Amino acid sequence: MLSSRAETVGSFLRPDNLLRARDDFKTGRIAAAELRAIEDEAIRDVAAMQENIGFQILTDGEFRRENWWGDFVAQLRGVEITEGSAATSFDKSYVPKHVRTTGKLGADHAIVTADYQFLASITQRAAKITIPSPTRLHFHGGRAAVSRSAYPDIDEFFADVARVYRDEIARLEAAGCRYIQVDDPLLTYFLSPKLRAEIIAEGDEPDRRLTTYLELLNQCLADRQSNTTVGIHLCRGNARSEWISEGTYEGIAERCFGTLDVDRYLLEFDDERSGSFDSLRFMPRSKTVVLGLITTKTPQLENKELVKQRLEQATRFVALDRLAISPQCGFASVVEGNKVSHADQRAKLQLVVEIAQEVWGTA
């Protein structure tokens, strides 16, 4: 299993030429092959940046994606993506889109295996692939978002979701991938009274739905190989430097931390909305906790000594040898990116590695 102390969550700010190329592709000015070539070059650059800073685990910056989940889900058979409801945006500028299952779920091909293969081909360091949580297929709308003609029994829907994910993970493993990160901000939605009320309005009970999701996640991971590291990233929303939910992990910690069959928890702890470290008392001793102490939402660079003090505070609940450090989320959950510059991004990444080296002696 991986033992890195410095980690990134996944996405990075897109370079300007990649943003232009994506617009050109949408309007038909360039073909898919030309867009992919530009993506390839941008990924080479962002991989080199991570290596130069000192990270031992690399991502491709999610440079082939419009947002953290949509490009993955859009490749599934039997789904359509619709515009979201402003009710779940907390009057922010970014409104999450919703997923509707219109037919039997399936995947006609590997979704992110080629992305992993390209990243692995340009680095000797560990290549991490991020995938959206299967909860994204159900949360907004619940039962009403799943076709009753395709799935009169909702348990069959969840079984098909798990099968699709098991197949995708198996393809990644066959290609050599040994670190898969599941991104699941939706688990923190159960901390929000507003979003819990929406679940109730849909005719469901929030705690029962949370139990269903934890079981679903474990079913998705049931066949993964013993030498594959699985991480799960939990945050409260990040697109365009905004957020969806708030509150300490206390409301889900005991059930989530002790239930999920993952190796690494990448947790958001960058501001007051995240609460204290007290919820880490529920973390099993077999897990690694990657503390997201560096914010990607604002350009201000954190004080190194204060961050190290927070790491020390976290050792009240999790031993130092089971801790690591990261930004609290990606820098560009959606293609527009957060309200930081490329220089800000690099400075924050360098700070993560510097702190890891000073605290643990290695990144």
Explain what you see:
The structure is a single chain. The chain is α/β, with parallel strands linked by helices. It is built from ten helices and ten strands. The protein has a six-stranded parallel sheet. It has a two-stranded parallel ribbon with strand order 1-4. It has a two-stranded antiparallel ribbon with strand order 2-3. The chain starts with 15 loop residues before the first helix and ends with a helix.
SS strand fraction: 5-15%
Class by helix and strand content? alpha/beta
Order of helices and strands: HHEHEEHEEHEHHEHEEHEH
Spatial extent as radius of gyration: 19 Å
What is the percent of helical residues?
25-40%
Strand order of the largest sheet: 5-6-7-8-9-10
Average pLDDT works out at 94
- Indicate the overall shape: globular
Distance between the termini: 15 Å
Largest sheet: 6 strands, parallel
**Extended strand count:** 10
Discrete helix count: 10
